[in-house]
Amino acid sequence: MLKTGTFLRGVAYPVSMQMTATRTETVVRSFMNRTYSWMTAGLVLTAVIAYLTASNLDLARQVAGLRFPLLIVQLAVVFGIGFLLPRINGLVAGILFMVYAAITGLVFSGLLMVYSLPSVYLAFGTTAITFGAMSVIGYTIKRDLSGMGRFFLFAIIGLIVASILNIWIGGTALSLIIAMVGVLIFAGLTVYDTQMLRNMALSGIDGDNAEKGAIYGALSLYLNFINMFLFILRLFNSR
To answer: How far is residue 5 from each of residues 9, 12, 19, 20, 27, measured CA to CA in Å?
Structure first.
């Protein structure tokens, strides 16, 4: 007689199948926990460095003078992680990610010199709630979103072009539209990236590759969070 576990909608599943499903879910949760732990560590490091830098006027002035070189280094690090990921181990990938988060903190120190602290706190809280909701949707949604990657790529390109044009055209209305579209794009990207990461965990990734995958996933989610925060802060527009 076939030994079965609990019944679901009247269908009996073998215990071995239930154990496999449970083990798979455990692996996915472990991978996602590592991913969000890395992302949270990066955000905390960014916030601490931004606050400490803004609190030291002399240091803040020096950092402001190096803003353009820091942006170049940021781009170099983030593209370097993507390029070098297959060739480096998890430890090096983690160090590079934290270096990127630290540099972002230096760059973001200027925000605390421009925007009021209450507006920054409100924007951060709103971003955290929105990001959390989108992550839950991405983790639980059943619809396959893999075909949306190209759409988000073109959407980001369009957003960048519109932002550059806005430098010359200016105008409150256009800035507001760009900010709203930016929030929507990176909220959607959070849903997309979360599902892609869950699929990566389901593919059976393990060992050091799993750690590197978690770090790269953390970087993707970190960038979504940071960009969403910037656009929400612009929406609030409290200087």
So the answer is: 13, 7, 10, 13, 21
Residue span of the structural domain in which 182 resides: 4-236
DSSP conformation letters of 26-57: HHHHHHHHHHHHHHHHHHHHHHHHHHHHHHSH
Number of domains within the chain: 1
Measured distance CA(85)–CA(89) in Å, rounded: 8
Do the beta carbons of residue 119 and residue 236 sit within 8 Å? yes
pLDDT, averaged per 10 consecutive residues of the chain (239 residues), comes to: 37 42 75 95 96 90 88 89 87 94 93 87 94 95 88 90 80 84 95 93 80 93 96 78
Distances (CA, A) of 163 to 18, 169, 173, 229: 51, 10, 13, 16
Identify which of 107, 84, 220 has the alpha carbon closest to the alpha carbon of residue 156. Answer: 220
Cβ-proximal residues to 111 (8 Å cutoff; 6+ apart), any chain: 50, 120, 233
What is the rounded distance in angstroms from the CA atom of residue 237 to the CA atom of residue 172? 10
> φ and ψ at 141, to 5 degrees?
-65, 140
Helices 15-55 + 90-114 axis angle, to 10? 40
Q: How far apart are CA 29 and CA 127, in angstroms?
A: 23
Which DSSP string do the residues of 3-29 spell out, in sequence order?
A: -EEEEETTEEEEHHHHHHHHHHHHHHH
The partner residues of 7 in beta bridges, in order of sequence, read 12
Structure tokens at 66: 């190096």
